[in-house]
Amino acid sequence: MTGADLHISTSSVHDKSDSYVHKHFRWDSIKQFVFLAFSVASSSYNFDIFSKVLYDRVKIVDFIFLEITMGITYMFMDLFIKQYTRRIDCYQYLNPLLRGIHMGCVLQSLLWNIILAGDLADAIRYFFAGFHFIPPWSKCNKHHRICVPTVNIILNCRMNNQTNLNETSASVNYHDSYFNSDKHELTSRLFVITLVWIINFFLATMTDTTLIKLVRISTLWRTFSTVFVLLFTLFYTEYFFTNAISQMFDATAPRVYTSAIDRITFAFGIGLVGVYDFGTMSPHTMIDNAVVIFGIIFTTFALARSIIVRVLYQALTVCIRDNTEITSHYLLFVVLPLSSEFLHVQKVFTIYIFLSVMCSLSAYLAILTLTISKLLHNEFRSVKVVYMVGILCFCCCNLSYPVAMLSKHKLIGLIQGINFTVLYLGGFKVAIVMWLYGIGKLSTDIQFSLGFKPTQFWTTCWAMHPILTFLFIVHKLYVLIHLTEKVQMILASTWILFSFCFVTIIQIKTIAKFIVRNNLVGVLKPRPKYGPPEPEDRARRRKFDVSTLHQYCVHRCLINEECYECNHMPLIFKRKSRVESMSDADTSLTNIFESGVVAKKSSIVMDSSQMHFN
Question: Which pairs are disulfide-linked (predicted)?
Fold first, then answer.
């Protein structure tokens, strides 16, 4: 073989290897999943996680620990079942009891959509108000008794006098809008909420590919804008930047795991509808890698946003004395707009904050509305998806009005009820899948579909997930009982009780069907249609045996499936007689396969399904 031939041969081997790795990982599908998951995970509630400005402070170490043990493992399970069955209503085929749990998750997602629609309306109002020469949060009205405009705050700061945060113009106007129910403010909010749902209807009725393209554009803009503002903050406010990093990574801060689990439930879809790819991803995508990549990206950009928030908060505390419990909504519409006024380029920060919230919530509402509409279309097949989207937007728009008229103080109780409900729904879902269906069966499904067996890390986390969830539920129940605000406790308890009754009614109806059929045991077993959508693939799954993956030939080549043959070509160094060669051929043909464990030897030929990338 010449040098040129050798070069061509090696190049072809490398090309095949590169194309094989690309095909094995399905990078296009992984990118598609990251875009969709990042849009579903981003909301006004998760805009700031690590800055330690909010009343429910989250440590980075606590968040990462729960993210690895609960968030990523739950999303891996949820996404694999959807990809494995290629059904949006896959859970009722896995176990009939999961139908009620899944409909309960739909109910939580609907209420969460209604709450976030109000936040989107507020972001739109504040975004356009920020273009005024003097924004509304920087000036006081005549009827305000105690109100300090931003100009006076800056003058007091120059004389080394701090102003109380509750007396600032931003805080006073916020309380007039969301606590005192000003008629003008309430009318404008309801009008913008109506526009939000009208726009959401048109976005959700687009084709799936068009909507996914809009999601990509929204995600890319938020990504690049966050990087730009972070670099701008680094070079413009270097002193605040270094202090922000040291305060956020303070190891002496107390651990609050309950605050971290609340953020993880909404980021990774625990107890919610979760991510649905609308059939655009390959069913053989390496889901474990996709989920881990998403977790890294989400945590990285959450940390970047928290650094920006912490820097703005430090600029605020130079002139303002903070003695209030800051919520996510109060942070977005009082603290951050007011703190940007103390920097020379305040328009950059206000545009970034409100436009980022608008893009994330618009994508979130459109994706979740279309996903829930397709799910309800499977329950009511006579109603088309476009009509289902219209009915859903109309009902949610009408329900958004009473939620918008609730004060933000009362709305906290409703959010606490959602936090409790999504935990027990997610915990029961994992318990039914892992304890009734079985971790072994799920691992075999993964090995059959993706070609690798989950490691002990995944199986251990799946087994412990319901136990950890139960501990968090007990703690949250203790917190709800000892709430000092009775209104918040009543709203939280009402929603928890309503959700529990809703799920229980569906479960009773499901169990009654099996009792009538005299097949009560069938409630605990998967349906025959569970599995891949094609009947031939389901038949192959029933005949699939893991032991066939451990067969070897006498040449020690790896043999994994029936469709793969041994292509070991032994070298012949001496000529043999025809009789000897025929006898050797007979023995090699009759002893190609050996059962039992044989020590592995390195071989050039290797089946793709034996390469473990989990």
Answer: 140-147
Q: Is the pTM of this model over 0.85?
A: no
| 226 lies in the same domain as 356 | yes
Q: Residue 63 in contact with residue 406, Cβ under 8 Å? A: no
> Residue 533's pLDDT is what?
86
Q: What is the pLDDT of residues 272-301, one digit of tens each?
A: 998 988 888 888 888 889 999 999 999 999
User: What CA–CA distance (Å, rounded) separates 527 from 89?
Assistant: 13
What secondary structure, in 3-state letters, does 548-583 show? HHHEEECCCCEECCCCCCCCCCCCCCCCCCHHHHHH
**Distance of alpha carbon 29 from alpha carbon 364, whole angstroms:** 20
What would the 3-class secondary structure string for 404-451 be? HHCCHHHHHHHHHHHHHHHHHHHHHHHHHHHHHHHHHHHHHHHHHHHC
Same structural domain for residues 436 and 574?
Answer: no
The full length of the chain comes to 614
CB neighbours of residue 50 within 10 Å: 24
Structural domain harbouring 588:
545-610
Residues pairing with 320 in the sheet: 163
Q: Which residues of the chain carry a pLDDT beneath 50?
A: 1-22, 24, 558-565, 569-614
Contact 396/197 with Cβ under 8 angstroms? Answer: yes
Does any domain span residue 552?
A: yes
Could you tell me if 310 and 356 lie in one domain? yes
- CA triple 561-566-571, angle to 5 deg: 165
Could you say which DSSP state residue 343 is in?
S
3-state secondary structure of 505: helix
| Together in a domain, 495 and 571 | no
Any idea what the CATH number is for the domain that residue 476 is in?
1.10.4160
Residue 494 lies in a domain: yes
Q: Do 450 and 593 share a structural domain?
A: no
H-type alpha helices, 205-286: 208-236, 238-248, 257-267
Domain boundary among 497, 516, 535: 516
Q: Does a structural domain hold residue 510? A: yes
Same domain, 429 and 500: yes
Please tell me the distance from the alpha carbon of residue 128 to that of residue 131, in angstroms, as a whole number: 6
Question: How many other CB atoms sit within 10 Å of the CB of residue 6?
Answer: 10
Q: Is residue 227 part of a domain?
A: yes
Output the CA torsion sign for 387, 389, 394, 395. Answer: positive
Residue 324 and residue 435 share a domain = yes
pLDDT per position as a tens digit, 558-605 = 444 444 445 554 444 444 444 444 444 444 444 444 444 444 444 333
- 419 & 555 share domain: no
In terms of Cα–Cα distance, which of 438, 417, 564 is closest to 500? 417
